[in-house]
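Figure 2 data, in text form.
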Amino acid sequence: MDIIYTMWLRNIKRYLRSKSRIIGSLGMPLFFLLILGFGLNSVVNISGGNSYVVFIIPGIIAMSVLFTSIFSGIQIIWDKQFGFLKETLVAPVSRMEIMLGQTIGGATTGFIQGILILILSLFIGLNTTNIYGFLIAFVFMLLIGLCFTALGIAIATKMEDMQGFQLIMNFLVFPVFGLSGAIFPIATLPSWLQLITMIDPLTYGVEGIRYGLSGTSFINPLLSFVVLGGFTIIIVMIGSHLFKKIKI
């Protein structure tokens, strides 16, 4: 357990020391929230009386967690290149514990980014004081963080250079985000596109956060929790398996 805490703490310290990383990671979510949200606010009609800005807030929070979490996998490649990973792997500790520490650390940084977007959202239209709703949103934010950090680490174990990793991540995350129902209501999509959307694990995270913050959701929140939780467990297991076989 000590190595899990050590790897987690290392990730958190690196994150908190990089103020430019924290500020820079807020750029794209705020762009979507302000430009897209207010730009389409008078065009897109949302059932239930909510404005479009309020509708996309859960999706933007999920996007912030997604991007921060999945790109934390680049730390594995960085550690490979500078020899830190080799020193860690030769230590008498479980590789699975090392991977779990990295995963929890990446998920925590993603969660913090999501919290920052949530706080900013309170000043631009989000109006909720339901503490239980916030807790529900937090649970789904953590699940998104764990799921996609583990996915990023799993991919990073097979990569040797950071540029290649970034290209693959960009190719992956934008479809995952775009098909998650974060920007447009799932109910308004064609049936074939709804089917594709339901395959996307981020969809269940977005809908879970949306239920917590607004009380409305296209998908039953319990189903969202089960599906996203199950997917997270599978990805963590795959990531652990690949990390055990990593070559340095």
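Caption note: Residues 2-244 form one domain.
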